[in-house]
């Protein structure tokens, strides 16, 4: 089976899952339930798509299939922001309760952080992307430690709320935030359009890309900004879930067996949506909200990676 | 013509290239020889703008390689680096078609595919053109990469150790192909090479480097000389003439 038909099959599965999620056991107050479910599906498609897309682009730029944008430190920054808000204002404050305000603060802090980091690191001549990743990782660890430190100091009840934020959850998504996210992602995609043609060539590696006339530094810097904005939007909308990207993009590469980014991106986005929708369905119907979707995704992802390791190990 | 004037490059405190000036004439094969760490690869990377220079001028047909638009240069000069470890699911034909990117920006037209087919035929890769790169031997993969640079159809082709890891048959096959590119298609080729006998037999000009400086440059027969080689390699090398080719015995 070719990668084209596989893409179509993945698309059909995604759509069917979305329909199943929306219409399954639709009883009671339909006017209330239906719009809520549609919003949840919208949020899932947005975050799943954004993370899968950003991870494909990130892996292509870094030429590495086990790096995800989480090494840029955005997840840790998000946790730090949440903890700082609780630390300063308390869990019942307006900033914590008003999801719109929280969303705006988180997203602008994350995007600002990325831009400052890039600007600072790409100023000199030796603009090595691995140096950027190293600094991102160190800052991420720093944010993580600082978050831990503050969480030790706060009231145990508030700590519970902070910890709740550590796991992505799609159980209460604000309708307006979904609309804002759609708008931001659409603008980013519009900006991305003119760099799209470079992706296949970038995957050959830096030297070959330069040889074939790609303005390498220029393109990579702009693609990194695209990645940072997409990850920020997804994280601010439902919480830290970048591990998903590592999982779905690798599955997509295994499944599609092509180098063409058009199909890899589509495949990753669909697989990501399938994983999130399926996970959320399990959370609601099987586990009856006793866990969150990111726990399930991380569990399945972990198992898959152990499988990959064992498989690679055998082929040596 | 490739023209280097007083080029310098250092990594940290280590001076890699020191005041190198040289001209590379059109329609010739020029070989860079010298011991490990002499700066051959750095020099070829700077000519092809992969590494920035510290000081000096590098121009190709009068155009500064660091100031000209990258896509424009990609139609003039191509570079093949020594390690080609692409881990993508790519067939030979797909790899070669990437050579057309500077012209097509990813949307290949009929003329582009014709050039791809020509390049595949030139390197005699027709039979394996639909195989994936990871199914090929080192020699076949090297030829596929050279086919990509041929499809790129540039006047200047730079190759960093194209004979690395190849057996004698494949090595001489590749050198003959390069010779044909120069003689039949008028290309200008610059290679970094370790085997001085290959350099002696196939190149028009040789540039001998040591410790980042040019020791000697000139026609192949002038550089393949006992005194010059002694200075570069610190070895007494016996040179014999066989069928008017200078062959070095250093075994």
TrEMBL record, chain A:
Gene this protein is translated from: yclO
Name of the featured protein: ABC transporter permease protein YclO
CDD domains reported for this sequence: TM_ABC_iron-siderophores_like
UniProt feature coiled coil, ranges: none
Gene Ontology molecular-function annotations: transmembrane transporter activity
Keyword Iron (UniProt): yes
Protein family (similarity comment): Belongs to the binding-protein-dependent transport system permease family. FecCD subfamily.
Chief location of this protein within or outside the cell: membrane
A Pfam family of this chain: FecCD
TM regions (residue ranges): 6-26, 38-61, 67-89, 101-122, 128-154, 175-192, 223-249, 261-283, 289-310
Entry's Gene Ontology cellular component terms: plasma membrane
Localization of this protein: Cell membrane
From TrEMBL, chain B:
Keywords: ATP-binding, Cell membrane, Ion transport, Iron, Iron transport, Membrane, Nucleotide-binding, Transport
Pfam family for this entry, one: ABC_tran
PROSITE patterns linked: ABC_TRANSPORTER_2 (PS50893)
Topology relative to the membrane: Peripheral membrane protein
Leader sequence segment: none
InterPro entries: AAA+_ATPase (IPR003593), ABC_transporter-like_ATP-bd (IPR003439), P-loop_NTPase (IPR027417), Siderophore_ABC-ATPase (IPR051535)
Principal location class: membrane
Any GO molecular function: ATP binding
Compartments it resides in: Cell membrane
All residue ranges annotated as the ABC transporter domain in the record: 2-236
Record GO biological process: iron ion transport
Any one annotated GO CC term: plasma membrane
Domain of life: Bacteria
Protein's name in the database: Iron ABC transporter ATP-binding protein
Gene source species: Oceanobacillus indicireducens
Phylogenetic classification of the source organism: Bacteria, Bacillati, Bacillota, Bacilli, Bacillales
């Amino acid at each position: 089976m070719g990668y084209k038909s596989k893409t179509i099959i993945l698309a059909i599965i995604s759509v069917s899952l979305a329909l199943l999620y929306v219409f399954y056991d639709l009883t009671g107050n339909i006017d209330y339930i239906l719009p809520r479910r549609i919003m949840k599906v919208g949020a899932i498609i947005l975050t799943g798509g954004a993370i899968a897309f950003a991870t494909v682009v990130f892996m292509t730029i870094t030429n590495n299939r086990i790096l995800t944008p989480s090494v840029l430190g955005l997840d840790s920054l998000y946790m730090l922001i949440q903890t700082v808000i609780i630390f300063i204002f308390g869990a019942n404050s307006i900033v914590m309760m008003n999801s719109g305000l929280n969303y705006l603060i988180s997203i602008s802090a994350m995007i600002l952080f990325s831009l400052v980091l890039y600007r600072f690191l790409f100023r000199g001549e030796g603009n090595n992307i691995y140096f950027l990743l190293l600094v991102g990782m160190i800052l991420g660890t720093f944010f993580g430690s600082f978050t831990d430190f503050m969480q030790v100091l706060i009231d145990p009840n508030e700590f519970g709320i902070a910890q709740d934020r550590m796991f992505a959850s799609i159980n209460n998504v604000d309708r307006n935030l979904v609309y804002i996210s759609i708008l931001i992602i659409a603008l980013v995609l519009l900006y991305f359009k003119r760099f799209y043609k470079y992706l296949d060539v970038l995957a050959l590696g830096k030297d070959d890309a330069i040889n074939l006339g790609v303005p390498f530094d220029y393109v990579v810097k702009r693609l990194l900004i695209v990645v940072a904005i997409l990850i920020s939007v997804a994280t601010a909308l439902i919480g830290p879930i970048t591990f998903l990207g590592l999982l779905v993009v690798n599955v997509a590469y295994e499944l599609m067996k092509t180098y063409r980014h058009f199909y890899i991106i589509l495949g990753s986005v669909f697989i990501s949506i399938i994983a999130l929708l399926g996970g959320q369905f399990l959370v609601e119907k099987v586990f009856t909200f006793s866990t969150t979707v990111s726990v399930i995704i991380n569990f399945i992802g972990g198992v898959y990676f152990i499988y990959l390791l064992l498989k690679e190990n055998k082929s040596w | 013509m490739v023209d280097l004037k007083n080029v310098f490059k250092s990594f940290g405190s280590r001076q890699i290239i020191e005041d190198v000036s040289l001209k590379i004439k059109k329609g010739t094969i020029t070989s860079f020889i010298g011991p490990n760490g002499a700066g051959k690869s750095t020099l070829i990377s700077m000519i092809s703008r992969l590494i920035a220079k510290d000081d000096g001028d590098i121009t190709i047909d009068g155009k500064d390689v660091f100031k000209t638009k990258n896509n424009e240069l990609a139609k003039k000069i191509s570079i093949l680096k020594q390690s080609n470890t692409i881990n993508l699911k790519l067939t030979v034909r797909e790899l070669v078609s990437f050579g057309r990117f500077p012209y097509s920006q990813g949307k290949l037209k009929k003329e582009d595919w014709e050039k791809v087919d020509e390049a595949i035929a030139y390197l005699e890769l027709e039979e394996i053109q639909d195989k994936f790169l990871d199914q090929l031997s080192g020699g076949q993969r090297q030829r596929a990469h050279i086919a990509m640079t041929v499809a790129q159809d540039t006047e200047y082709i730079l190759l960093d150790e194209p004979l690395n890891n190849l057996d004698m048959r494949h090595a001489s096959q590749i050198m003959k192909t390069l010779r044909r590119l120069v003689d039949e298609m008028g290309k200008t080729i610059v290679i970094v090479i370790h085997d001085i006998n290959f350099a002696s037999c196939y190149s028009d000009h040789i540039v001998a480097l040591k410790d980042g400086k040019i020791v000697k440059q000139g026609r192949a027969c002038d550089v393949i000389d006992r005194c010059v080689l002694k200075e570069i390699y610190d070895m007494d090398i016996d040179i014999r003439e066989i069928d008017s080719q200078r062959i070095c015995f250093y075994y």
